[in-house]
Design brief:
With about 200 residues, the chain is mainly α. The protein is about 50% helix and about 0% strand. Helix 1 (about 5-15) packs antiparallel against helix 10.
């Protein structure tokens, strides 16, 4: 079993938030929280809805970009999802794209978002936001809702230096529930069904 090394685990440790609290906050089971905690490739953090991520960054007092390995940098300005919808409409008008064509281009169904932008809180994940902004040539952190927090200096130094040796050296028992076995931490990957968010 891998020791915790993810940016989420580093930020949670800095904020004094346990893996059990992460699971409760996100309303997910403990094995899935453990996958987030030990994720080494951003596979898991990108599956969370924007609403769940907003709860997470609020609790951890970090910016959402602190929770991904390949950070594009912090938000450069504050922009709303309504503004993102307007930017997308301008793009479609300028490019003479229909809604279906734009949806095909970004790889996600966009009609519901244009009808009701707040649907993104429950429907979208970071991958969706990143894909839409990528097509529009926009910096996706600018459009993450309530992107109000900055990563603390001590955590930023750890992430920037990639100094995870000390983190890996921390006892597994400090983070894993006492009653859990390796089998219980198989998580939602592999043959186990992934729980729905």
């Amino acid at each position: 079993m891998s020791d915790p090394v993810s940016p989420l685990a580093i930020a949670a440790n800095s904020s004094g938030v346990s893996i059990e609290e992460i699971a409760a906050l996100l309303d997910i089971n403990l094995p899935w929280a453990w996958d987030l905690w030990t994720d080494k490739e951003d596979d898991e953090i990108y599956t969370l809805t924007l609403g769940k991520l907003q709860s997470l960054v609020t609790r951890l007092h970090v910016e959402v970009t602190a929770l991904v390995y390949e950070s594009p940098g912090p938000a450069r300005r504050r922009a709303s999802l309504d503004e993102l919808a307007m930017d997308a409409r301008v793009f479609c008008d300028t490019s003479k794209l229909s809604m279906d064509e734009f949806s095909d281009l970004v790889g996600w169904e966009m009609q519901v978002f244009f009808d009701r932008t707040d649907s993104a809180w429950e429907d979208w994940n970071l991958e969706w936001l990143k894909d839409v902004c990528g097509v529009l040539g926009l910096h996706w952190p600018d459009y993450f809702p309530n992107c109000d927090f900055k990563l603390s200096d001590s955590v930023m130094e750890s992430v920037e230096a990639a100094d995870l040796a000390a983190w890996r050296a921390l006892s597994y028992q400090q983070f894993a529930p006492d009653h859990a076995s390796d089998d219980e931490f198989c998580g939602p990957l592999g043959n186990s069904p992934s729980p729905a968010l």
